[in-house]
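FORM 12-B: Structure-to-Sequence Request
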């Protein structure tokens, strides 16, 4: 009798790919997990229970057909598994690396709920697509027909690139405008290499370029080209700029030297990994080497910052978060990795101000410090009654403040949208009271005819996988708009 290929979770335990030791990975920016071998990938995929109602799939923003490509992997049919994975996800190798599977697919795995340990969905997804690249199964974009319509996409992040991929495969002429010198958005400059090595992103960029997508990089809309010009040049426009404006902390001493934004800090580090000339890093302004580093924030960006500081050779790295561990918004897997690497988490702690060369004498005067920062004035907190969302509200404990010494403070408090209507001279573009663009939740069309918006600029700072979904949905809506147009046979 042939061996049962699936439902092997009772006899086979969960086994993640080997993780490099904390001591080893502290010294470089390479990814921390090794790849599965084929036999191990097949074994772990075979643990899937093939649920009648697959909660892993329903809790994936892309609704990836996870049970089917796990089964194909278990049966050794890797090319078919890749093709099925690629059908719903433009960048499965990226999602396999950076998605918080513990909060999405794996966190809702039925066998996890029954105590057997979740299927390692993310690791198998990464293995499938990495194998596809190695074996040449990832084919160039080659539309069967070329269409006359063109789409301008503003922003080369996950939403814009996902839309560009789908539109180009349908034969649409696509131009992507981006302010940076490389495409990829936060996947390139915001996420460190130890989570997502940059050649993974650059391969997809090359595939899009070779497939006929035109990239206009170093192009800042509103300065180098107007929004009106882009609208005039294309039959439809998709806004996928993301949210890059950092939330500020208006506290005494916040203007001191050595208090930096997370996006600036991470971008400088990632640019160095490309071999770029980064004066702010070389001067030490955005370099943690030898410094006492304090990162303020509790999300995934904060985790990226603390783990980057470790690799840059910081003397010490602490993360301040105003709630406790159970209420931290960042991935628990990332928190555990950071702790292994030597990061100290200071729970129930909120910044009140900053100390520096000049003593803080007036707590309501943000300019009270001149010169470099020397510490963070911390209020100790406790969790009080729940608010309207059911989440406990942090409360200050009177008389429990103290100073956390620091030479470099990284503010990772989240991101907000830039005021695009004002920056682009298009005041009629509808926005919400939070500054995000108003768009139909199904078609992603804005109040301007033929103008769509997708990703974080609509939903606020969120996950890459949600941006990919939004970009794909917007592309589908644009193609529906073009339905009925005459396609021209490809030469």
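FORM 12-B RESPONSE
SEQUENCE OUT:
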């Amino acid at each position: 009798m042939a061996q049962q290929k699936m439902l092997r979770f009772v006899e086979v335990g969960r086994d993640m790919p080997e993780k490099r030791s904390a001591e080893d990975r502290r010294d470089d920016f390479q990814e921390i997990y090794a790849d599965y071998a084929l036999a191990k990938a097949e074994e772990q995929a075979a643990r899937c229970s093939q649920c009648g109602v697959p909660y892993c799939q329903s809790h994936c923003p892309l609704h990836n057909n996870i049970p089917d490509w796990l089964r194909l992997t278990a049966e050794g049919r890797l090319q078919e598994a890749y093709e099925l994975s690629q059908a719903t996800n433009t960048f499965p190798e990226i999602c396999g690396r950076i998605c918080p599977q513990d909060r999405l697919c794996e966190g809702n795995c039925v066998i996890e709920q029954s105590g057997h340990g979740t299927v390692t969905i993310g690791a198998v997804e990464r293995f499938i697509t990495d194998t596809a690249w190695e074996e040449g199964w990832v084919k160039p974009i080659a539309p069967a027909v070329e269409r006359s319509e063109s789409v301008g996409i503003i922003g080369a992040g996950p939403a814009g690139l996902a839309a560009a991929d789908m539109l180009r495969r349908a034969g649409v002429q696509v131009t992507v405008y981006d302010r940076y010198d490389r495409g990829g958005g936060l996947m390139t400059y915001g996420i460190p290499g130890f989570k997502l090595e940059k050649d993974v992103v650059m391969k997809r960029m090359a595939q899009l370029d070779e497939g006929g997508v035109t990239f206009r990089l170093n192009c800042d809309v509103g300065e180098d080209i107007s929004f009106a010009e882009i609208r005039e040049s294309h039959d439809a426009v998709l806004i996928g700029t993301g949210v890059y404006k950092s939330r500020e902390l208006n506290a005494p001493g916040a203007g001191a030297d050595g208090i930096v934004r997370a996006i600036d800090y991470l971008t400088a580090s990632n640019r160095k990994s490309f071999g770029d000339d980064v004066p702010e890093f070389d001067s030490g302004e955005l370099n943690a080497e030898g410094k006492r580093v304090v990162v303020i924030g509790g999300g995934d960006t904060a985790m990226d910052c603390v783990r980057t500081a470790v690799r840059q050779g910081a003397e010490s790295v602490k993360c301040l978060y105003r709630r406790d561990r159970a209420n931290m918004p960042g991935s628990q897997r990332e928190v555990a990795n950071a702790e292994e690497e030597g990061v100290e988490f200071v729970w129930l702690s909120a910044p009140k101000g900053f100390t520096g060369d000049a003593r803080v004498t007036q707590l309501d005067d943000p300019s009270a410090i001149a010169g470099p920062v020397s510490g963070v004035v911390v209020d100790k907190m406790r969790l009080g009654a729940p608010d309207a969302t059911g989440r406990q509200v942090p409360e200050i404990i009177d008389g429990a403040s103290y100073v956390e010494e620091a030479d470099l403070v990284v503010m990772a408090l989240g991101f907000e949208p830039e005021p695009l209507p004002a920056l682009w001279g298009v005041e009629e573009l509808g926005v919400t009271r939070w500054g995000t663009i108003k768009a139909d939740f199904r078609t992603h069309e804005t109040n301007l005819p033929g103008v769509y918006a997708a990703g974080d600029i609509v939903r606020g700072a969120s996950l890459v996988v949600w941006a990919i979904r939004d970009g794909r949905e917007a592309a589908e809506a644009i193609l529906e708009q073009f339905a009925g147009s005459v396609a021209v046979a490809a030469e």
